[in-house]
Amino acid sequence: MVVKNVKIYVLGEDYAGYNSPFLSQHGLSFLIKIEDESEKIKNILFDVGTYAKPILFNMKLLHLDPQEIDAIILSHSHVDHTGGVVEMVKAIQKNPIPIFAHPHIFKTSFALDPEFSLANSLTESIKKDVERSGGRWILSSDPIRLIEGVSTLGEIKKEEQLEFEKTPTIKLYYIEDGRLVEDRVEDEIGLYIETRKGLIIVSGCSHPGIVSMIKKAIHLSGVNKVYAVIGGFHLIDANEDRINKTIAHLKKLGVERIYTGHCTGFKAEYRLSEEFGERFERLHAGKVIEI
Ligand SMILES: [Fe+2]
Ligand SMILES: [Fe+2]
């Protein structure tokens, strides 16, 4: 079953757009407005940026009411996708407001290079703060269907990752049983939406690899046609070979439209814009994508 209309509002992005009244920040946040065949509307907040304030400011400019949000999805643990969660839950003023995420979203992940720095912000005390404000955590590594034609991707398992995407896009670690373990950001989940034009795949940073995430969406939905891919691709530190392979796969999969920015990086964006022409669009705060 496909949904009737989808409108995606970019509420948080690293770029504000040219000559724009919107506020940027390091991080991502989308409001996804989905209308089904019976004209019922669901508003899903996908990620909450590092800070809630610019998101709420941008919502006001777009005439969007936080109290109309029905659910939150946190794509992964990193602070630029989760930092605004307490303030956003407070602004939504609903009890309960479901928050979908991976069970490992509270792990303490960090970088060692160039110096020790924490990558995620969520702690047990934030978890409780969110609950006190009405948030209800739904932590699952399996896909969760939100409405007909709309589902999270769940964890992209190692065996579901394409060989060239198995190398983590970011060098992070966490401690397990007192030992230093490499973090493959297995906590990243994405979202797919089935529309009349084909699948829409929404991702945060695509740490497990954007192609592996698209393939999982195709597998879960049984729909082969991919209309749009929206989100950060984290190719900012990727070498030429990985960028080339990603583009080759996106073309082979017949992806119609690419909307990216955030952690995709200038080199990959430039290449995507060359290869996809008008079908590539740079994300920015305040952008509205209608499908
Ligand atoms: Fe990010
Ligand atoms: Fe990330």
Automatic annotation (TrEMBL):
Residues 26-262 form the Metallo-beta-lactamase domain. Gene3D superfamilies: Ribonuclease Z/Hydroxyacylglutathione hydrolase-like (3.60.15.10). GO terms for molecular function: transferase activity. It comes from the Archaea. CDD domains: DHPS-like_MBL-fold. InterPro entries: DHPS-like_MBL-fold, Metallo-B-lactamas, Metallo-beta-lactamase_dom, RibonucZ/Hydroxyglut_hydro. This is Beta-lactamase domain protein. It comes from Methanocaldococcus vulcanius (strain ATCC 700851 / DSM 12094 / M7) (Methanococcus vulcanius).
